Amino acid sequence: MAAENSKQFWKRSAKLPGSIQPVYGAQHPPLDPRLTKNFIKERSKVNTVPLKNKKASSFHEFARNTSDAWDIGDDEEEDFSSPSFQTLNSKVALATAAQVLENHSKLRVKPERSQSTTSDVPASYKVIKSSSDAQLSRNSNELRKCSWPGVPREVRPVTWRLLSGYLPANTERRKLTLQRKREEYFGFIEQYYDSRNEEHHQDTYRQIHIDIPRTNPLIPLFQQPLVQEIFERILFIWAIRHPASGYVQGINDLVTPFFVVFLSEYVEEDVENFDVTNLSQDMLRSIEADSFWCMSKLLDGIQDNYTFAQPGIQKKVKALEELVSRIDEQVHNHFRRYEVEYLQFAFRWMNNLLMRELPLRCTIRLWDTYQSEPEGFSHFHLYVCAAFLIKWRKEILDEEDFQGLLMLLQNLPTIHWGNEEIGLLLAEAYRLKYMFADAPNHYRR
């Protein structure tokens, strides 16, 4: 309505700027608006007045000559002094002002629009969501703290799924997430596993097939054909989906702790001697899929260990050498004296995460802490290796030849180790990390 009034007003007034305007002077002062109507009504009488006196009729002559400047109908309808015209003016002015203010407000608010996209969300929902997220974060941190000194066997499967990031912290999403991820894994099997016999995948599959029987050869569980088939599928699918590294010897060891932990969810007896053919097909499928995804999560953090030339391992071995030279110079110089290179014994420590140096039960306990510690399998593992090496300080210094040192370092006597020894090892590793992690030049000689 305001737009129509504005348009009508300016249309009606369009004649005014280009028309002849009245000239006011001493003899012709401005007319009183109140006389305008009377003057217009009497204009028709002007033509009948005889022009006897030129001076007296000059104004009337002027009026006749400029009569085209004024539309009588408009003047009669739009008396500028009338209340109706004043009302129209005020309406148009208010409407125009309101429109201008609205346009300017839009220009001002527009850049900040993205910052207030959640303004439509009820405040109560924001508070609840924020509180829920904060609670989940607190719960996750609390779970890590509780898991650092070891996780009870009964809750280890679900705890590992949570700590690895495979299982969401939100309990409402867990069932659907597990179902979706398990279906996704077996979708990979259908899509890729038949290609293992293709020429460009034969080398990968052959190496996997050779390495699997070597995985924990002293544990009967891993010599069962059904278990070896599961491992073959897990490792082949992972290699196909990670072409940057593909399969590398040593990755096969990383499946075993997850497989044993998730198997223990269905088995109360000794897992290492359990016959998996006693489990249902659904149970085996769940164990296989969960082992694949958790192993994948682990490898995501250390994948540079297995890319071409294994630069991650090279870097970690060098870091171990530097760290040992700072914490125990005597051991470091002993290696140098007998020309023992750290790469000759520590490469396996990094490649297999000490799994070849420790019993499986100790590896599982160690991984409780690794998954609780930020960058546990990469950064914290370095300090565990340093603590592990210094643990054998006396035995190392007693060996006085190259061959004796390598034989010792590749066959350390840990067969009888348990949770107590792992706990002491982790405590020493934490102490070293506290001293050196944030002070790379500390104690540098």
From TrEMBL:
Protein name: TBC1 domain family member 22B isoform X2
InterPro entries: Rab-GAP-TBC_dom (IPR000195), Rab-GAP_TBC_sf (IPR035969)
Organism, scientific name: Mustela putorius furo
Highest taxon listed in the record's lineage: Eukaryota
PROSITE patterns associated with the record: TBC_RABGAP
Domain Rab-GAP TBC per the UniProt entry, residue ranges: 150-374
Keywords associated with the record: GTPase activation
Pfam family, one: RabGAP-TBC
GO molecular function: 14-3-3 protein binding; GTPase activator activity
Chain's role: May act as a GTPase-activating protein for Rab family protein(s).
